[in-house]
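Hello,

Our lab assistant flagged a job as stuck in the queue for most of the afternoon. It eventually completed. Since we weren't sure the result was trustworthy after the delay, we are filing this so someone can double-check. Below is the sequence as submitted and the structure that was eventually returned. Let us know if re-running is recommended.
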Amino acid sequence: MKMTCLGIIPARFASTRFPGKPLIDIQGKSMIQRVYEQSRKAKRLKEVVVATDDERIFDHVKSFGGHVIMTATHHESGTERCAEAARLLGGVFDVIINIQGDEPFIDPEQIDLLCACFQDPETDIATLIKPIKDTEELFNPNRPKVDVDDHDFARMFSRSAIPVLDLPEEKWLENHVYFKHIGIYGYRSHVLAEICQLNPTPLEQAERLEQLRWLENGYHIKTAVTHVEAIAIDTPEDLAKIAFK
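-- returned structure --
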């Protein structure tokens, strides 16, 4: 049976670092419109929908002809907002792709790559990883790393470089392939509903990485390698860097 994939873009207005971020103008189009239009180019998505809790965003998406759904205001994460949106849409999709709403130049091929991970029946959740080429990035705790097994399933996520080598740090990249985590996720629909009911776990709290909650509860996270990394806009300063390229 053919697998159906839904792309959901969680979008809230009340960002701590950049209020109103989805509606900012980037060279004549809002950020949320750019994310939506890029996502629509993905060949494996049957539908794309914006999930918001704000009428301004809702009305704006409607104005450019986008599909949008109103969700509750209490969600603590985009994962929870995606789960509600999927439930409101009736659960007719096999796979849900959580598309970051602050990456206006996201590559549609990355979305398709994520969808393809679910051809493996063992895949509960999927995400992307990228080879690390720079020592500074390897040891940057703000760049989560991931260790994978021989079947491309994640064994561990960490803010530290994993595994630890018994060599000088400047030699690590010469002797092992390290991967950084690219934070876009896909979930089987029933798995998305389940993981939103899980309580925080010790490893998750220690590393401050949500995906460790899923690993600690036995879910299988498939990874796929990408060599592209979309530009995320978290602050007004980030916007200034890309607006005049």
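-- support follow-up --
The delay was a queue issue, not a problem with the job. The result is valid. The first strand starts at residue 5 and ends at 11. The mean pLDDT is 92.
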